[in-house]
Amino acid sequence: MAHVHSLIILFLCRxxxxxxGWTMDYDVDGDLSLDDLVKKLGYDGIESYYGTAPDGYIxxxxxxxxxxxxxxxxxxxxxxxxxxxDSFFVKKNESGPIFLADHGYDVWLLNSRGTxxxxxxxxxNPDNDKxxxxxxxxxxxxxxxxxxxxxxxxHNVHDKLFLIGHSEGSTIIFVTLSERxxxxxxxxxxxxxxxxxxxxxxxxxxxxxxxxxxxxxxLLDLTERLSFFGTRPxxxxxxxxxxxxxxxxxxxxxxxxxxxxxQSEDSQIQYVRDWSFYISxxxxxxxxxxxxxxxxxxxxxxxxxFSYGPKRNLQVYNSTEPPLFHLENxxxxxxxxxxxxxxxxVDDDMNKLKSQLQNVVTTDFRGHKLFSHIDFLVAKDxxxxxxxxxxxxxxxxxx
Length: 399
Ligand SMILES: *[C@@H]1O[C@H](CO)[C@@H](O)[C@H](O)[C@H]1NC(C)=O
Ligand SMILES: *[C@@H]1O[C@H](CO)[C@@H](O)[C@H](O)[C@H]1NC(C)=O
Ligand SMILES: *[C@@H]1O[C@H](CO)[C@@H](O)[C@H](O)[C@H]1NC(C)=O
Fold this sequence. Notes:
- There is one protein chain.
- By secondary structure, the chain is of the alpha/beta class.
- The chain has a single domain, classed as Rossmann fold (3-Layer(aba) Sandwich).
- It has 15 helices and eight strands.
- It has an eight-stranded mixed sheet, with helices on both faces.
- A hairpin with a 5-residue loop joins strand 1 and strand 2.
- It binds 2-acetamido-2-deoxy-beta-D-glucopyranose (NAG) (3 copies).
- One 2-acetamido-2-deoxy-beta-D-glucopyranose is lined by residues 58, 120, 122.
């Protein structure tokens, strides 16, 4: 993983910053594959399934292998922006998938298009064809999640499953349930961690608003010219960040950066003893359009299809504005969880969403007052704050 570029940059840093503090101190499990990590936790490991989406993307779905498993309903995890299936395991033996597997559920995880393991296509080459990276969470919701649901149900005696989406995973679930309404019948309950539909923070929270207003108009042009966030430079950048965060000298900088990026204020995030482990499991790739699409929703207040600008929208959608997603189609029950300290789902966002949904089971959970956006993955005592509530709801909705 140590690229020549990273080593040169590290060498320069060492010259500039001096010699002290250049010891490595990190969790060696960061280098394990998900399969090896899960085996180390005492399970039989992970198996991979692949499917081809209607637009040619080859999508990977993970499954926790278990001998003698109880026959409870399957649950499919859907990860957030830049993350992947691995990201749900940052708490190792206390992570959500392991907890549910221990309680007899059959656990599956999606790797959405653009992540390391879902970066292939029947025609396009992710290294050479920038068109490969012209997607947002819209396509993941229209194609990848329905595909994954079909894979899970095909390998199961049950005809329904649970969905658990964190952050962008929540957005993706809402796109699927809105635009592929037949999938509501296959979903017993969807549980949204850090619910992500409306994003008023994009125009009200100071730093986010500056970012949204300045960046959004530039991104379409940039992605078409360079598409640099999707292609290999991104994985080099990722590897460099992971490597740097393993040196004690950068530890606090990495922590502050992640806290700033996620606006986690005084969350319980400090639980993560080893930031390099978290980072190595959380930067798995993605396209810059995913971010741009969020900015559009934030700036317009419309949960709508991707906007190409008025002229091209007219060609693509027969309308200068992109059409709204049909939230009125969401018939399956939903649990909307959003912590008080989460700027990506403020009260206005939640109220607006609730008013458009027909079947909201609850928005309550024990961690409500304390949680920020990523606490669902990393907080101390997650079993107390969310798992117990989650298990009770899943028991109730198991059929
Ligand atoms: C997880 O592992 C740690 C240390 O290996 C142990 O102290 C803790 O009890 C374990 N938690 C669960 C839920 O198994
Ligand atoms: C990508 O998919 C193509 C077409 O199915 C296949 O021929 C190729 O081997 C795949 N490449 C990788 C790296 O998996
Ligand atoms: C395009 O939109 C116009 C006005 O809304 C409508 O009259 C027309 O039928 C639409 N055309 C197509 C092909 O949908």
